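Quick one: structure for this chain?
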Amino acid sequence: MDLGIEGRWALVCAASKGLGKGCAAALVREGVNVVITARGAEVLEATAAELRALNPAVQVRAVAGDITTPEGRAAALAAFPQPAQVDILVNNAGGPPPGDFRDWDREAWLKAIDANMLTPIELIKAVVDGMAERGFGRIVNITSGAVKAPIDILGLSNGARSGLTGFVAGLARQPKLAGRNVTINNLLPGAFDTDRLKVTMAGAATKTGQPVEAIAEARKQLAPARRFGTAEEFGAYCAFLCSAQAGFIVGQNLLTDGGAYPGTF
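Got it. Here's what it folds into:
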């Protein structure tokens, strides 16, 4: 299927690896020019080279910096050929650490909210009116399956990402956006084969004394698919939400978890 987005410009955050990289790669394959961000310049530049090799016809611009800061956001937006020329925005940021809420002080909460709620909102604010003026815009927020089924040790993530979800539910349905072919949706990943999952499983193995392989196998059994997702298939899902054909998908929270969530709704 031709997704109808060839020649568009996208900003993909935290795209040097993992799910962000998967999204950037899928968009590049569709002929989308991308600006990718991450804090680590060396890994980001290596990813940019990989993306250019996927499709030499597109432009790939790498902007190293912290997207959670005003300076980082300004640098990323300045990389576009024209101000506010962002046709596609993929919001993504690493989740806050797990733990017990009794151990989190105000600073820990503010850091989580800033990264996983306020930063996406600031980026949306920076680009959404330009999208509406041009009559096309796709915003995809990578949140977490924990928004739908909270995980007790991920309270910081549960709270911050749920706040973003509530905000998007109202914003996405504004006629001046949805009525101008600007869609905002959230992708809720479950267990994907990423570095973050590996670190989490390594921590669990250390804590329990079990082999990492046993931890991984037990985690796979939590989903009917009996496997972890891949960044490539997540990217394809994201690319479809960014497509011309997805203009009637508005304000949705779409699970990609291999069937782990057991509810009907």
